[in-house]
Structure formats: C-alpha cells, structure tokens
Amino acid sequence: MSLYYMHHLYIQHTFVDMFKIVKYRTPISIYELFNPSPRSTNLLMCLPRINLDTSKQNFIFRGSLIWNSLIGQLLDKCTPIENGLMVPGSSPSSDISASIALVKKRLKDLLFITQKYEVQGRVNEWLPSNTFRP
Description:
single chain, two-stranded antiparallel sheet, about 45% helix
C-alpha cells in the first residue's frame, strides 16, 4: 500500500517543483538545464538526450517526463482574445500564470481520480494498475 502512495507523492512533489522552477525561473542553474520545446505552445519540455538507462532516473529527465504528461491535464487551454490572438495569461489558469495552490489542488484531484478506478471489483486500493504513470 505505501509503495504506491509514495509513487503518487513523488509525482506530486516533482511536478510542483517543476512548476515553481518554470514559473519563477529560479534557481537559475536548474532552470537552464531544462529545454522548453520551441514548437509547442502548451509548455512541453524536450527530453534530454541520455546514453545510459541509469540517467533516466535523474531529476531533469524524470521531471520533464512528468511535466509533459501532466501539464495539459492540469492547466486550461488558452482562449484567443477578440482579434484571434493567443495571449499568455489571458485565462487565469491557462499557463504558468496560474497559482501554485490551483496547480496543487488540480494535481491532487487528478491523482485521486486515477486511484479511484475500480480494478477487479476493488475500489480505492493502492494497486500498481491504478497508479498514475507518466
């Protein structure tokens, strides 16, 4: 039971830390290690190139992977203004202008919804098949 709970805590803390790093661009030494996608308007990160499987466990790779799998589910789509232009921050929860409290609440709700899926007639149990996987 606690292993899967820890998995969700890891995802929650990693995503919230990533959100703070991207939003405030601090600490700058860590922010510069991430590579935002130049083609994407939905705040995706390019995964770093790695040579070893053990490198997939570092914060930059795992953080980018978790970020990419959750960012579209937690923030609303930006809506165009009257003349059709997309203005970042035009909707209060559409990009990194969203509050950290809002992101934490939505992430917590998403992880609980993921957990509540019924598996083999058992609901609300910490099973590998009903944990969030990036």
